[in-house]
Amino acid sequence: xxxxxxxxxxxxxxxxxxxxxxxxxxxxxxxxxxxxxxxxxxxxxxxxxxxxxxxxxxxxxxxxxxxxxxxxxxxxxxxxxxxxxxxxxxxxxxxxxxxxxxxxxxxxxxxxxxxxxxxxxxxxxxxxxxxxxxxxxxxxxxxxxxxxxxxxx
Length: 153
Fold this sequence. Notes:
Order of helices and strands: HHHHHH
Largest sheet: none
Strand content: under 5%
Helix content: 55-70%
């Protein structure tokens, strides 16, 4: 009988916890990149040929956003890899990120991976945009080094 009486209190406590966490918003994790995830970073001769393209793509995926923003990020990746002279690889990578980058996969490289799992597709709120800007500012020296010299990582 005591279990039944304590359930309403436990349920209310759980509800309050969930509501408070939703009201406070989710915290953005610092940006990190694994390069081209489970795909090579370049050719056998030029091992990091399109690595910079993957870093740029990871920046977009880290912050997440709408379905359209993801589509643009994926096509930007394709265009970047095409621009280094690899049109076939670019098409292959586009197919891979379209299938494997869904925000609903529980992977470390899903769309919006900087946020807690199951954020899905939605525009960033004003608070989330502030978090992204603050994190980018905090990590600016590291990001500049990565994007200018991806071979040093």
